Prior knowledge:
- This is Beta-phosphoglucomutase family hydrolase.
- By secondary structure, this protein is α/β, with parallel strands linked by helices.
- Helix content is 45%, strand content 10%.
- The protein has two domains: 14-26 and 121-247, HAD superfamily/HAD-like (Rossmann fold); 28-118, no CATH class.
- It has a six-stranded parallel beta sheet, sandwiched between helices.
Amino acid sequence: MTSRGLGLPDHIQACLFDLDGVLTQTAKVHAAAWKQMFDDFLRGWADQHGQRFVGFDQVDDYDRYVDGKPRDDGTRSFLASRGIELPDGGPNDSPDAPTVHGLGVRKNDLVLAKIHQDGVEPYDGSVRYLRATAAAGLRRAVVSSSTNCKDVLVAAGIDGLLDVRVDGVVARERGLAGKPAPDTYWAAAKELGVPPSRAAVYEDALAGVESGRAGQFGFVIGVDRVGQAAELSKHGADVVVNDLAELIEGP
Length: 251
């Protein structure tokens, strides 16, 4: 087995891919849904507390507080940045409930509506790279915090290019900590039958890169879709590319 021509050290035997922003063009869909949900909430909060409304920044706030994290963790993280604390509530909360779970349900409903309306596009370079890794005999997993991961993979037409899926549904069922903890990546490597030291992690989120480094994986690739190459390197990426196709040698 060789990983030559794929931008990887020769000892790498498996590739662990994040979904949104790495394989599929859904990060912008999530960012837009977070903004719509938080802006609606923040307007009401500002009115109730006599404060000035300051909206959710779809780039800075998204990258800093929610990108790559489980939905509830991202919600808490951003609210804490604004000095707001809400009760967690429960998984059966309605999207109108003033709870962490309620806000998460509202955001998820928005994401699903946008996906069903507009569809899902994979990155062409990522599809080429997935096929190249398969041809090289490398095992492949998707590791995502999203509970919609399976639907997105099917909608994008790339579900057949991956051997293992560890997503938000699996993490909840197994009680796995979300990114930046390395637990979901460890679980994927275990299912593929390789130690972390022989697996590569592909991430566009700072929290995801941190999880790859914390898990002592053999190689961490940062995928810079939004101009944060320096931050990806700072958080632990061994190499940073704009697109996975850059890692493929030759025509």
